[in-house]
């Protein structure tokens, strides 16, 4: 089974349970109220998680040792770095699936300033931004009111948008982010100089 397929299967299984329930009983995805079934579901998650994270970690460790032993051979080092990065992407994909699953179980609704949320999301991809040589230009509205939002979901949204923007500018560029208030709405605009990335407004 693919390393992410079991999470999709678990999410879809719970989604079907949710749809079969009365719509007024559940606002989102839920685990069974039956304790034994709930235990088995979490047991399945943890067992698969341990297995799927351990495998790429072993590969990363082995490849790092190979690169260290052959540090004078740039070809071997580059080859091992590529494999290490691919395994990191594999773990990242796994974590995104799990975070989506956990966020569906419990919403983290808070009241926060959108500028703070954006800054926090940028911090998550700071390494990518520096490596790509991207210049981040902020044009934040002042005295914006705090708004009610799901902190995990909105940070995940911004992080994904920033990652896509940086990937569209591998040889440097400009990432522009602006916020402003329009009557009762807080508007966020994200632009970049990379190809294939359209301006995003919401």
TrEMBL record:
Its EC number is 2.7.13.3. Gene3D superfamilies: 1.10.287.130, Histidine kinase-like ATPase, C-terminal domain. The keyword Hydrolase does not apply. GO terms for molecular function: ATP binding; phosphorelay sensor kinase activity. Residues 48-202 form the Histidine kinase domain. It is an enzyme of class 2 (transferase). It is a multi-pass membrane protein. It is found in: Cell membrane. It catalyses: ATP + protein L-histidine = ADP + protein N-phospho-L-histidine. Keywords: ATP-binding, Cell membrane, Kinase, Membrane, Nucleotide-binding, Phosphoprotein, Transferase, Two-component regulatory system. This is histidine kinase. It comes from Candidatus Omnitrophus magneticus.
């Amino acid at each position: 089974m693919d390393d992410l397929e079991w999470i999709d299967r678990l999410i879809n299984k719970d989604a079907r349970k949710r749809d079969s329930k009365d719509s007024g009983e559940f606002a989102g995805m839920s685990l069974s109220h039956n304790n034994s079934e709930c235990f088995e579901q979490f047991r399945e998650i943890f067992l698969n998680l341990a297995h799927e994270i351990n495998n790429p970690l072993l590969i990363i460790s082995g490849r790092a040792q190979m690169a260290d032993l052959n540090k004078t051979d740039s070809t071997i080092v580059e080859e091992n770095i590529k494999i290490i990065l691919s395994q990191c992407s594999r773990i990242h994909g796994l974590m995104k699936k799990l975070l989506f699953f956990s966020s569906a179980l419990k919403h983290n609704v808070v009241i926060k300033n959108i500028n703070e949320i954006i800054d926090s999301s940028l911090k998550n991809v700071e390494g990518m931004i520096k490596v790509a040589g991207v210049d981040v230009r902020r044009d934040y509205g002042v005295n914006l009111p705090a708004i009610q939002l799901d902190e995990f979901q909105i940070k995940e949204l911004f992080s994904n948008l920033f990652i896509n923007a940086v990937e569209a500018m591998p040889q440097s560029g400009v990432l522009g982010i602006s916020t402003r208030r329009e009557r009762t709405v807080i508007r966020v605009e994200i632009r970049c100089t990379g190809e294939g990335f359209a301006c995003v407004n919401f």
